[in-house]
Each structure stands twice: as C-alpha cells, then as structure tokens.
Request: fold
Amino acid sequence: DGGITQSPKYLFRKEGQNVTLSCEQNLNHDAMYWYRQDPGQGLRLIYYSQIVNDFQKGDIAEGYSVSREKKESFPLTVTSAQKNPTAFYLCASSTSLSSSGNTIYFGEGSWLTVV
Amino acid sequence: AQKVTQAQTEISVVEKEDVTLDCVYETRDTTYYLFWYKQPPSGELVFLIRRNSFDEQNEISGRYSWNFQKSTSSFNFTITASQVVDSAVYFCALSGRGGANNLFFGTGTRLTVIP
Reply:
C-alpha cells in the first residue's frame, strides 16, 4: 500500500535523552514535513525538506533536528534541548514544495511522552 | 498575515442531524488554497478537499459539502445526515504564497455524533 509510515506509534522518553521518530514514504514525493500537535491546538511546522540533503527550519525548530539522506526517509530527532517535548508528532509529504496548493498527506502520527 | 479561525471548539449532534463546521480565513494573497482534513481518534489526518481561490463553486461529495465564499472569507463544511463514524476533529487549513511549506491550520473543531 502507498502511504506514509511513522514509527513508533508510542514512545516514552526520560528527561535528558534524545529520541528519533521514523518517517518513511513510498509515494515518490519530493517534499516532506514534520508537524507538532498539542491538545486543542492546530499543527505547527517543525522542519521541512524539499529535496534530498536539504531541509529548512519551520516555526518551532528549536530542540529538534532532521536529516534527509534518502528521498523516502525523513527522521526527526527530539533532543534534550527541547524543553517541552510531550506532544503528538505528524510526518507528512507532498509532490513538491515549490508551487502553492500541493496537497499534503499525513502519516498516522507518533505520541511522545516524557517521563 | 495568514490566519485560519475555527470558532467552534466542540460540536455535538445526534445521529442523522446535519452539521456545519465553520472556517474563516485571512490572507493578502490573491492566489491561495483552502483545505479540510479529518482527524479520527487514531490520529492520522485524512485529506478531504482542496479548493483554490479562483474556484468558488460549491462542492458535494456524498454526505459532505463545502461552501466557499470569498466575500466573507469563509470555507464552511457541512455533513448531511451525520453518522457516528463522522466523529473526529476537523481542521481547516490555508496555503498561500510560499508553497506548501506555508500551510496554516486552524485549531480544529471536535465533532461528536451521538447515536
């Protein structure tokens, strides 16, 4: 099946630890994104990537890092510098970034809880 | 500035009732796109519709319909004969200048359909 796969679905992190969320897509999309969702709020953009080996900060990039070594993969690392990491994280992709109106498709999300 | 407002935080309806979810947007762009997404309890955001700013025709898809009015900057979503499976959080989003990395989400409306 074509789509976006995120793993793990649920993740618990101790304070001070880095964790990496996986995102893989087989839609042959060039652009990929990471969003954060907090209860009762809309989605906020963390990072996005238009092409392999290139990525840009979104609105709330502090405390996060990404890589884009393959077109299909866009992992997100939540570092210990992120002060409030407990949230729902959504990975997404679209055919391209350059033209307005491209529909963004989302994965099933990952719940991260700091314990 | 770009902004999407979903004033209805939560709505409850009895099954088979019709319900309208409101979305009001702000943008200075002349070309822009509007979207609706559904987020069921599983967490994944499911794409429902995309509408560009030059097409004000209303759209109907089964029990779903959308009313786009540029004069009032609104893009409302109506579910006819609601069903329990319609229970979810619905997000309206706006994409303007800058491409798909410039996607602004509203805070969502939680719809509960009571059997």
